[in-house]
Structures are given as C-alpha cells and as structure tokens.
Amino acid sequence: MPERPAPTASLPPGYRFRDLGPADQRDVLTLDGWAFPTGASVESLAEAPSPLSWDRAVGVFHDADDPDAVPVDGAVPVRSDLVGMHASYPFARFPVPGGTTRASGLTWVAVHPGHRRRGLLTAMIDAHVSRSLARGEAVSVLFAAEATIYGRFGYGVAAQDLRLTVPRRAALRDVPGAAEHTVRIETVDPDRHAALCEDLHERAGRDVGGSGLNRPGWVSRETSELRRYFWTDHEATREGREPQRIVIVERDGEPRGYTTFRRKLSWETLGARGWVSGGEVVALDAAAAKALYDVLLDLDLTDEVRPFMIAPDDPLVHLLASYRGAAPTLYDNLWVRLLDVPVALAARRYAGEVDVVLEVRDALLPANAGRWRLRASAFEDGVSAERTTDAADLSLDVRDLGSVYLGGPTLAALAGAGLVEVHSSGALAAASAAFAWPVAPLSSWVF
Ligand SMILES: CC(=O)SCCNC(=O)CCNC(=O)[C@H](O)C(C)(C)COP(=O)(O)OP(=O)(O)OC[C@H]1O[C@@H](n2cnc3c(N)ncnc32)[C@H](O)[C@@H]1OP(=O)(O)O
C-alpha cells in the first residue's frame, strides 16, 4: 500500500484520544446510553457480551476542573470523562462483487450530547481513516444512525434493504421442492445454533439463486465477539417481545436455511392482535426460502409479519401474489467509503468489459484524488486500476464511487441525478453496466 498523508483534523483543546479496553465497559455503556437513549439500565446492558474488538475501540476523554470537587490546597481536582468514542470491526473477508476485500466496519460512534458539534466526530473519522489505512483496509463500511451524518466524510449509500408488512397467510407462488422440507421451530441457543447458522449464512451469500455469483455486502460475523453477541438473546433488546425464536428448514436431513423471529401479542376487544418481527432470512435456494416464509406467514394468533432488512431482490418479492399489499419501503443499508481507491477498485469484479478513466474528487484523502484508468473483462480476474494522465471519461466524488462500488446504485442513475459528470457518453453506458452486479448488495444484520 503506498505512503499516504496522515489526516489533519485534530481534537479541540481539552480533549484527548485514549484507546479503550474491557475495563472501560461500564463507561462505554453509559456513553452509549447518552447517545442512543433506550431506557435500559447500564446494569442490564452490561449483562450482554460486548461485540467490540477492544483493540479497535478509541475513546475521546474530556479533562476539566471537577465542578463537584472541593479544592485541595487551592487547586481544583481535574475530572476526566469519556465523552466520545468510535470502534471498528475487522472484516477480513468483506464481500464485494465477485470477491472479498479487507474492510473496516465503523461502529459504536457516539458523542455525549454536552460535547456535540465541536468537531469530535470529525477528528474521530480522521483517526478511523488513518488507522484503517495503516492496517491495509482499503474500504470502510457502516450503518448510519442518521442519513445526514456520513456523506460529508465520503461515505455513499451502497445498498438498500426492503421493509415489508405482509398480511398473515398472504398468497405466495409455488416453488417446487418447498413442501419437501421438515421444519424445526426452537428458541435461539448460541451453543446449538450459532455454528450451524454462521455456516449457512456464508454459503447462502457465496452463490445466490444458483447463479454462481455472490451477494456483495453479505458480511459475516467474523469475530468471536460478534458471533457471541449476535446469538445471545439479551432482555434489553426485546422491547416487550418474546425471546428470540428460530426456524430451521431441512431437506433430506440437511439444514437448508433459517430465519429468526419474535412475536408480540396484544389482547383487544375483538381478540388477539399479534405481529411477527422477522430477523435475517438465510436460504441456500428458493425452495428453502419459500419453506421459511410459509412458516412465518402462518403463525397462530398473528395478523402480520414484518421481515426486517431483506434484499430488494429477495425471493419473497417475486413470490408474493400481491407485492404492493406488503407496503414495501426501501431503507439505506450499507454505506461505503473507499479509503484506497485503486486497491478497492481492483478488489472487485465487473459485470461487463470496461476501459474507463474515472476522475475522482476526495477532499479528505487527497491520495485518492485524480484520474484512474480502470480496465476489466466481464466476470474475470485481472482487473487493473492505475493512475493515468489521460483525459477523464467520467468525473465524480469519492462518495458516489462508494455508492456504486457494491453494484447497487448505477453510475447512469447517479449521472441522471447530476452527481457524475459525463465527458464521453459511450463510457457511461459501458461503465454503468460493468459496475452494476446482477445480485443486489445487502448486509443481513446491523453492525
Ligand atoms: C456508524 C455508527 O456508529 S452510526 C451512529 C452515530 N451516532 C449517533 O447517531 C448517536 C447520537 N449522535 C452523536 O453521538 C453525535 O451527534 C454524532 C456522533 C452523530 C456527531 O458528533 P459531533 O461531534 O457532534 O460531530 P462534529 O461536531 O464533528 O460534526 C461534524 C459535522 O457533521 C454535522 N453533523 C454531525 N452530526 C450530524 C447529524 N446527526 N445530522 C446532521 N449533521 C450532523 C455537524 O453539523 C458538522 O457539520 P459542519 O462541519 O458543517 O459544521
């Protein structure tokens, strides 16, 4: 990886960075409670395992005179508070179109309300970017708590997920083989389910619909901390719903898919009203997906199913007799920031032959700015992305390059929105087709 200038933003006076460790867990949860008010006590949150990779968690501490302390020999004792933090997950096998790359999953970004809008996040992003680059991570990915935060730092919306409200017993088209599955419905137990489900999850993302193509963004819970956290059902996240349940469908004795769910009931004048909130839906093929949805869509005492975060090209979209009856809504899913443009561009495959010069603007990381020639053949290795002095075919901000990186939004769509300047119209058509991927990008879980 080439030498890169260090980011420049620094913390305002009175603040300092310090790496966090497991001993900071209670302070971390207290700060998190300020940033994301949930009503759960620190004590109850502390019962859950931490998902953090502590060697990648960084705090911002504020050192100031302690207003509550009694002066000693005329001097006011100084108090040091954790007022900001960020962390990242090491995704060594982050799925990009046709391959994987090393990505840094930015997470647990929080600033205490009493210290916001003083530049703490700006300084934390600089620290995150430089540390990620030093670790050889060419891409950073995240889920945004608010859609207005991360664009300014060069992150673009690279994937969308679908939220549906499907009426109970909604009609689905038939899929041969679906009825041949046996069904297990159980309470989630990490010891029994975690390894089985993580294996199914990885396999489902590698070959979608028998196409031999992977699903970009289908990131695994790569660390033991993330796996333990994901499969532990902690009371603080139930919000009045039942413990987490799991449906596993098997065919010829082999597990073929799973989904998790929680139900909630309210007893009203006319009887029970119930809904099912779905977790990730993971299936090795369409028959297994249909078998899972058949279970979710006919649970007693429920009226509707709300699948959470399925791909816009999920089988359910095409199997529902009335898609519009499920009130579809699209949400931003993964945001992507290219940290090292040539490394990131060469890490993925392209869906068409392309030879294009991209002129990239990047205010935060000037090493990415300038013209890059991208050459690739359809679905093949041997991609090259090199600096060039040739005239640009397309000009765009690194944020918009991040948006098209996983093959979701197209360059043509961004050009239509005025976000890509087109210097050669033939180049736009070819590059747009090459960057698009036949399988929609998605992460099935929030990190
Ligand atoms: C990947 C994740 O973890 S997502 C989770 C993000 N965390 C949260 O949403 C928790 C609640 N919010 C917070 O903790 C804080 O408000 C943060 C982290 C979002 C922002 O921290 P701050 O230290 O206030 O940000 P900072 O002062 O560096 O602001 C930088 C710029 O972003 C803007 N900005 C910051 N937060 C927001 C926001 N929520 N919406 C719109 N603009 C924002 C600021 O106005 C500022 O703009 P400017 O440069 O034009 O002046």
From TrEMBL:
<feature type="domain" description="Eis-like acetyltransferase">
    <location>
        <begin position="217"/>
        <end position="329"/>
    </location>
</feature>
<feature type="binding site">
    <location>
        <begin position="117"/>
        <end position="122"/>
    </location>
    <ligand>
        <name>acetyl-CoA</name>
    </ligand>
</feature>
<keyword id="KW-0012">Acyltransferase</keyword>
<dbReference type="InterPro" id="IPR041380">
    <property type="entry name" value="Acetyltransf_17"/>
</dbReference>
<dbReference type="InterPro" id="IPR051554">
    <property type="entry name" value="Acetyltransferase_Eis"/>
</dbReference>
<comment type="similarity">
    <text>Belongs to the acetyltransferase Eis family.</text>
</comment>
<dbReference type="Pfam" id="PF13530">
    <property type="entry name" value="SCP2_2"/>
</dbReference>
<dbReference type="Pfam" id="PF13527">
    <property type="entry name" value="Acetyltransf_9"/>
</dbReference>
<feature type="active site" description="Proton donor">
    <location>
        <position position="150"/>
    </location>
</feature>
<dbReference type="GO" id="GO:0034069">
    <property type="term" value="F:aminoglycoside N-acetyltransferase activity"/>
</dbReference>
<dbReference type="InterPro" id="IPR025559">
    <property type="entry name" value="Eis_dom"/>
</dbReference>
<feature type="active site" description="Proton acceptor; via carboxylate">
    <location>
        <position position="447"/>
    </location>
</feature>
<feature type="binding site">
    <location>
        <begin position="109"/>
        <end position="111"/>
    </location>
    <ligand>
        <name>acetyl-CoA</name>
    </ligand>
</feature>
<dbReference type="Pfam" id="PF17668">
    <property type="entry name" value="Acetyltransf_17"/>
</dbReference>
<dbReference type="GO" id="GO:0030649">
    <property type="term" value="P:aminoglycoside antibiotic catabolic process"/>
</dbReference>
<protein>
    <submittedName>
        <fullName>Putative acetyltransferase</fullName>
    </submittedName>
</protein>
<dbReference type="InterPro" id="IPR016181">
    <property type="entry name" value="Acyl_CoA_acyltransferase"/>
</dbReference>
<comment type="subunit">
    <text>Homohexamer; trimer of dimers.</text>
</comment>
<dbReference type="InterPro" id="IPR022902">
    <property type="entry name" value="NAcTrfase_Eis"/>
</dbReference>
<keyword id="KW-0808">Transferase</keyword>
<feature type="domain" description="Enhanced intracellular survival protein">
    <location>
        <begin position="341"/>
        <end position="441"/>
    </location>
</feature>
<dbReference type="InterPro" id="IPR036527">
    <property type="entry name" value="SCP2_sterol-bd_dom_sf"/>
</dbReference>
